[in-house]
Amino acid sequence: MVYLAITSQGLKHALRAVEKCAAPVWCGSDAISESDFENSECTSLTRFSYPLGGERPEVLAGAVETIEEHHPGETIWIEHA
Q: What is the DSSP annotation of 14-70?
């Protein structure tokens, strides 16, 4: 399973969920700052260079497509607030 966190709170939940299994977690630039991302100890975390929160559906769909390219056949959990 791959996690896509949209908010900083969702990212915290996803990171807790993968502590023991190291599943991939992706997020937008608005979910974690660049400096916090660089200092993160989570090696399975990927940060998009653009925000996802409050964006048009096409932006989220593009993010999902990118994740699918990197993790073909995997289930993607998408945070929904």
A: HHHHTTTT---EEE-TTTS-HHHHHT---TTEEE-SS--TT--HHHHHHHHHHHHHH
pLDDT tens across the length of the chain (81 residues)? 999 999 999 999 999 999 888 899 999 999 999 999 999 988 999 999 999 999 999 999 999 999 999 999 999 999 986
| Beta-bridge partner residues of 46 | 26
Q: pTM for the complete prediction?
A: 0.93
